[in-house]
Amino acid sequence: MINLIEAERMAAWGGAPNACVHSAYYAMYHCAAAAILASGGVGKRLDVPPSHEHVIQHYGKLVEAEQGALGESGKMLSRARTDRMVADYDLVRGTNNADAKATTIDARTFVDANAKKWGFDSGVPSN
Question: What parts of the chain have a pLDDT lower than 50?
């Protein structure tokens, strides 16, 4: 939840779009990992896959039959990863405030949908 809180604060501020996207993605990534664990985990150890790519793949399969925001959340996570790659590694282009705000809105939607589905208690109200 720390990543989501930071992303929402940075999105409101508008002064650090790359850091904002980074935090928004990690809020979604950690939430996806928690959802995978809440659903029973994967593999022999019934845990979370070791790579971001595999977390995204397994999470996408986990929610593909769901309706509404949860059903769309696999795509949100994949888009956020792409945005984070630009924010973290594209030293020329980076990201902008509009993209940072959009990714942060997706992150809040993502976390809220998963909290409802899996019974997570975020303890953090929406901004």
Answer: none
Output the six-digit token pair for 102.
Answer: 């959009």
Per-residue tokens: 1? 């939840």
Note whether 59 and 35 are within 8 A (CB). Answer: yes
Superfamily of domain 2-118: Nucleotidyltransferases  domain 2 (1.20.120.330)
Structure tokens at 52: 């971001």
17, 100 Cβ separation under 8 angstroms: yes
User: 99, 19 in Cβ contact below 8 A?
Assistant: no
Give Cβ neighbours of residue 58 (< 8 Å, ≥ 6 apart).
36, 42, 49
The CA-CA-CA angle for residues 72, 67, 25, to 5°, reads 25
Q: Model-level pTM?
A: 0.92
